[in-house]
Design a protein that fits this description.
This protein is mainly alpha-helical. The protein has helices spanning 8-18, 27-32, 81-90, 96-105, 111-124, 129-137, 144-158, 167-196, 212-220, 228-241, 249-258, 264-275, 283-297, 304-315, 339-355, 358-375, 390-399, 407-429; strands spanning 55-63, 66-76, 79-80. It is 54% helix and 5% strand. Bound molecules: coenzyme A.
Length: 455
């Protein structure tokens, strides 16, 4: 066949029309089959798929089988993340390395541990030149998450012992990934600028002695300049994004892939793919789009009634991106508050006036205040709905001049520590391949020979 002569669009259209004859499943079928849609119980809580010592996402209490809303708390290895941020602020220091050590090694590092770990992570930032040239520069992509997933997968070929899942080897690979991902992210962005935006590309080398947040800002900006306050804000954002329980979508994906016994690069690239989705890490971009859309359509951003009316339109799919989602609101576990949103909002406000983002901040605050009464109508129970971390992370990135293509990749860079901790725990403790079941709904159908089938 000569493929040049095939009208491929027409053919696809024909096949698309033929697809999905049965449509959606009746929701009752899930109940009848005792199937947990989205691996959730009927009350929206996640089914218990495992046990973990890595973190605890605390969003409600159960009383007499009912969810009781509480202020959200997040613990890394039992340590309240709010305390980590508070201690770092008090001592005016960076905390991401401390948080990632804590997640990987299970306890707070001593000063010596931390210095050693930071030195190692710095060393890991050195990526082989041929990797940057061959994997990142030669094959740029508009979407940096896609590029990161492919780059992580490519690291397999540069690892002399990629399939060894021993704890020692897995730790080595984890630290390399934690060190390398930020460098790969910035290089992937530069390659994208040159290839797709026709802008100059600059590849600054990471500097020794800088924290991860400082290095990101220093390699991302043409003049390499940044203020201490800017880097601290990015660091806080990274601490808050480092981990979020084994049930969060990308960590669960990482654990599921790991459970097959495959290599770390396969597991982490799959996790990056999961995080890319707008219902997961991609939501921070969606919040920014929503913010711009509201600013375009609402005349007075201090008028609550006008904002509420527009949010109702978004919810009713008459405005926004048509999905009916008010981005930045809602969470599978948190009810009254998401501690990450609370902390990030407070940290962000410190730079809001200096950076000229007061109006955006005010508007997001209004969305946070006004949305619950609109969304409550849809909720399974009345445990409440709160702003999630994505409500303010996009604002932080914008204030730091970080391009929108990097909003979700920055989430991935931060979350690498959590993913690696979950992979290590899965290897160390589970020893069983994840293999849930799907109830088949089809009756048996007789096989009809090809010539006897009707058009
Ligand atoms: N806007 C509109 N509808 C929302 C909503 C929001 N922000 N949050 C939840 N809902 C809807 C859900 O889609 C669901 O509707 P359905 O029954 O028709 O499927 C219903 O309310 C109940 O949702 P719930 O069980 O409380 O939440 P969830 O665990 O299914 O979803 C999120 C959690 C985060 C995916 C969801 O709140 C959401 O999509 N938020 C917007 C995107 C976002 O900000 N994501 C960042 C996550 S950190």
């Amino acid at each position: 066949m000569n493929y040049q002569t095939v009208d491929i669009e027409k053919e696809f259209k024909y096949l698309a029309d033929r697809y999905n004859p049965d449509g959606e499943f009746d929701a009752k079928l899930y109940t009848m089959s005792n199937a947990k849609r989205g691996l959730r119980n009927a009350d929206g809580t996640g089914i218990v798929a495992g046990i973990t010592r890595i973190s605890n996402v605390h969003g409600y209490l159960i009383n007499e089988y009912e969810r009781v809303p509480v202020d959200g708390e997040l613990f890394y290895r039992g340590v309240n993340v709010a305390d980590i941020v508070a201690a770092c602020s008090k001592e005016d220091r960076f905390g991401y390395d401390e948080a990632s050590w804590l997640l990987l090694f299970g306890e707070l590092p001593t000063r010596d541990d931390l210095e050693l770990y930071s030195r190692l992570i710095q060393k890991c930032r050195q990526i082989p030149n041929d990797f940057i040239d061959d994997v990142i520069m030669r094959n740029p992509c508009r979407d940096i998450m896609n590029k990161l997933a492919r780059s992580v997968l490519s690291l397999y070929a540069y690892d002399e012992d990629p399939d060894n899942t021993s704890e020692v080897n897995s730790l080595r690979q984890s630290m390399e990934l934690i060190g390398r991902l930020p460098v790969m992210m910035v290089a992937a962005y530069q390659a994208k600028r040159r290839a797709f935006d026709y802008e100059s590309m600059f590849l600054h080398m990471p500097l020794v002695g800088l924290s991860t947040a400082e290095n990101i800002l220093s390699t991302l900006r043409a003049d390499r300049q940044f203020t201490h306050e800017e880097a601290l804000l990015l660091d806080r954002c990274m601490i808050l994004h480092a981990e979020h329980g084994g049930g969060n979508n990308s960590a669960f994906v990482c654990r599921a892939v790991t459970s097959s016994g495959t290599d770390i690069y396969s597991a982490i690239s799959a996790a990056i793919g999961a995080l890319k989705g707008p219902r997961h890490g991609g939501a921070n971009l969606k919040v920014c789009d929503m913010l711009d859309d509201i600013k375009e359509h609402v005349r007075d951003i201090r008028d609550d009634d006008e904002i509420r009316n527009y949010l109702v339109k978004i919810f009713n799919r008459e405005a926004g991106d048509g999905t009916g989602l008010i981005y930045g609101m809602g969470h599978a576990v948190y009810t009254r508050s998401d501690p990450r949103a609370v902390i990030l909002k407070r940290e962000a406000e410190k730079l809001v006036d200096e950076k000229g983002f007061r109006d955006d901040f005010t508007l997001l605050d209004a969305v946070e205040r006004l949305s619950p009464s609109i969304l409550n109508a849809k909720m399974i129970d009345d445990t409440g709905i709160c702003a999630n971390v994505d409500m303010y992370s996009g604002l932080v990135y914008r204030m730091l001049g970080i391009p929108r293509e990097l909003f979700t990749p920055l989430f991935a860079v931060s979350r690498m520590a959590g993913w690696c901790a979950h992979r290590l725990e899965e290897i160390q403790t589970c020893h069983r391949i994840m293999r849930p079941a799907y109830r088949p709904l089809t009756k048996s159908v007789e096989y009809v020979p090809l010539d006897e089938r009707k058009n």
